[in-house]
Design brief:
11-stranded mixed beta sheet; 2 helices; 5% helix
Length: 270
């Protein structure tokens, strides 16, 4: 089964999301068999290579189950094809087609691991880039091992503390560039009263090297997803530029905080 945590987009009719301010999602240009087909959302919360909003003329070879924010759904998969993301050419044996939570294209972390390139997202420029390697300065964090029930989901987890209602809990949070909002599993923290208490909660999200962020987060109950999904709303407050580097196993995150000196943008991958 594929796991697609990302695409928690505030304009989606499939997910009840009411953030106080929709935040940035980052994209890269996508081509299929040499033909441009628009932008693809870069999704560090997606355990897949590509999701396509339609088949773009590619043949289909069956169906697979995908665990997304709304639960398990069955989507089509394409035949093999050539494609490029951000000008970097690759060959895919298949792609997912038509995930209900987003009428969009997406590129998951399997692409970054396969291409051996790093993903850089820059909130100053509202831009994503593919670069040869991560910078050597900034806050550098190894991916934390995923939780046992997600042992195959080898992406950008970090150890955080989340607090609300007088309770603080240590959790593994997934840094998810495919989500413009942050979400936590219902029941982990005391819920507030009020009209939005079933779907929203005021919390603080803290990391020892990145600092503490106050956020109004969404609540969810879908089994099989990480307990905390950290979207670009919180990421933007922590740091202005992030680099995600995926190794054969595990990886590393590099963050340049707003208060730190910032080097020039990294050059594109060759």
């Amino acid at each position: 089964m594929y796991l697609c945590v990302g695409f928690l987009i505030s304009t989606s009719g499939c997910v009840p999301v009411f953030p106080p301010r929709p935040d940035t999602l980052f994209t890269l240009p996508l081509s299929i068999e040499g033909a441009p087909v628009g932008e693809a959302i870069v999704d560090t919360g997606g355990a897949y290579e590509l999701i396509l909003r339609e088949d773009f003329g590619l043949g289909r070879q069956g169906e697979v189950d995908v665990l997304a924010f709304g639960g398990i759904e069955t989507v089509a998969i394409t035949e093999d094809f050539r494609y490029s993301v951000g000008g970097v050419e690759q060959f895919a044996h298949s792609a997912l087609v038509g995930l209900s939570v987003c009428d969009c294209n997406g590129v998951g972390f399997e692409f970054f691991r396969k291409s051996e390139l790093a993903l850089e997202i820059d909130f100053d420029r509202s831009a994503a880039s593919l670069i040869a390697s991560a910078p050597t300065d900034g806050v550098s964090l190894e991916f934390a091992p995923p939780p046992e029930y997600l042992s195959a989901f080898d992406s950008s987890f970090i150890e955080i503390e989340v607090a609300s209602g007088g309770r603080t809990v240590g959790l593994l949070g997934l840094l998810d560039t495919g989500s413009n909002g942050t979400f936590i599993r219902r029941g982990i923290l005391p819920e507030a009263s009020g009209i939005l208490s079933r779907i929203r909660l005021d919390v603080t999200v803290a990391h020892s090297d990145l600092g503490t962020v106050a956020a109004n987060v969404g609540l969810f109950e879908t089994e099989g997803l990480p307990d905390v999904i950290i979207g670009t709303d919180v990421m933007r407050v922590w740091a202005r530029r992030w680099t995600f580097s995926y190794h054969a196993r595990g990886g590393r995150i590099t963050a340049h905080r707003w208060a730190d000196p910032l080097p020039p943008p990294s050059g594109p991958a060759n």
